[in-house]
Specification:
Length: 108
C-alpha cells in the first residue's frame, strides 16, 4: 500500500473503528455487485481498482400523502423521524390518499 492509498482508506478505517458500517463491492462498470458489509464478508484487498468502498449512507424512509383543505390541495411528507404516525395522517380530516403506496427509501 502506498502512502496515497493509505490516505484514502484512513477515513474508512476510522469510521469502522468508530462503529459506522463500511461496505464494499466489485465495480465492473455496467454491472457492479451489491454492497457488502465488511462485518459480514470482511475487508477486501486495498488498492484493487475494481473494488469500491464506502461508509454506508444513512437511509431516510418517507411516504407522501395528498391532503386537502379550504385553501386547496397540498402534500404532507411522513418520514421515519416524523412524530406523526401513518394512522394519525390517515385519520386526519385533510387526508385524501397516499401518493406513495409503500415507503420510499433514499440514501443521504
Amino acid at each position: 500500500m502506498t502512502p496515497e492509498q493509505a490516505k484514502k482508506v484512513l477515513p474508512l478505517i476510522t469510521a469502522y473503528a468508530n462503529g459506522q458500517t463500511v461496505e464494499w463491492r466489485r465495480d465492473w462498470g455496467q454491472s457492479p455487485t451489491p454492497w457488502y458489509s465488511v462485518e459480514r464478508i470482511g475487508f477486501p484487498g486495498w488498492g484493487c481498482e475494481t473494488i469500491a468502498i464506502r461508509i454506508k449512507p444513512e437511509v431516510i424512509k418517507y411516504r407522501r400523502a395528498l391532503m386537502h383543505d379550504t385553501d386547496g390541495k397540498w402534500i404532507f411528507v411522513v418520514n421515519n423521524a416524523c412524530k406523526k404516525s401513518v394512522t394519525q395522517v390517515e385519520s386526519s380530516s385533510f387526508f385524501v390518499r397516499w401518493i406513495d403506496n409503500d415507503w420510499v427509501e433514499y440514501e443521504v
